[in-house]
Amino acid sequence: MGKEVWIENTDPLPAQLDYLAEGLKFRVFEGGSLPAHDVAVMLDFNELERTGAMKAPLEAAGSRKLVIDHHIAHGAPWWSAAYVDVKAAATGLLVRRIARELGIPLDLRAARGVYTSIVTDTGWFKYSNTDAETFAAAAEAVELGVKPSELFGSIYQRQSRQQPLGIARALGRLEYFADGRLALVDLPLAQPGEVDLPDGDDVLDLLRAVGRVEVVLFLRELKDGTLKLSARSKTDYDVNRLARGFGGGGHAKASGATLRGTLPEMRTKLVEAAVRQFSDVAR
């Protein structure tokens, strides 16, 4: 459309997604001012706090703030306009809808972005949010030149040699509650000789595959002293409700939160709240 676009992020792209920045003006925000801009588009979130260090300069900028998201929104709107569909499997699908409404065909680079958004949010089409629109968009991306095997290899088959050892350490702390319906892993910071696990998706997927397990909670300690919660559900148990109770949020079947407190203390509170919610659902 002839617009000059910058992509600003508070974190660098992980190595497995580095192809997303090819040919783009991508910058990791490390403080200071933002590029001069008329419009700021926030993708895949609807809470300004999620921008971290970018929050203050964004608030100070006189630009219009647009949100494109599929998460449940809470609190008062802070944006100029928003396109939110909580039933959409991925925010990439909303981007595709907007492009189609504007009559802008996707090029290969954009198709890769949409496809990546879809496969990472649907667990490569295996989660319950996968629908006909998801497959239609994926098919279109393939027609435009996206190679599923190449992207799968980039996203899921470039782990470090340490990754399996980190998973092993995490699984060694596995415990079940609520008659086996709740699985929890709490992971302290790695000590000398131990391997850290920066992402809990592999652990969450393994435990969600256990027949009786309905809910999986992964609570890990971060270097800044906070705790990161990742919660997943494969039934009608609403982990968004659980995460909201700890200041987080997300989806009914996939949510998270940042917690403050010691690992043993917050682990106990989390288990109590999760088990109590099982009782609430039963009533």
Structure report:
The chain has 283 residues and is an alpha/beta fold. A six-stranded mixed sheet has the order 6-7-8-9-11-10, with helices on both faces. Strands 3-4-5 form a three-stranded parallel sheet. Strands 1-2 form a two-stranded parallel sheet. The termini are far apart. The longest helix has 20 residues, at 263-282. The chain has two domains: 7-156, inorganic pyrophosphatase (n-terminal core); 163-282, Roll (Diaminopimelate Epimerase, Chain A, domain 1). The chain has nine helices and eleven strands. The protein is globular.
Outline:
The protein has 283 residues and is of the alpha/beta class. The chain is built from nine helices and eleven strands.
Mean pLDDT: 92
Helix percent reads 25-40%
Q: What is the N-to-C order of secondary-structure elements (H for helix, E for strand)?
A: EEEHEEHHHHHEEHEEHEEH
Strand runs, count = 11
What is the CATH-assigned architecture of the largest domain?
Answer: Alpha-Beta Complex
Query: Low-confidence spans: pLDDT under 50, at least 5 residues?
Result: none
Percent of residues in β-strands: 15-25%
Strands in their spatial order, largest beta sheet = 6-7-8-9-11-10
Enter the CATH topology name of the largest domain. Answer: inorganic pyrophosphatase (n-terminal core)
Outline type? globular
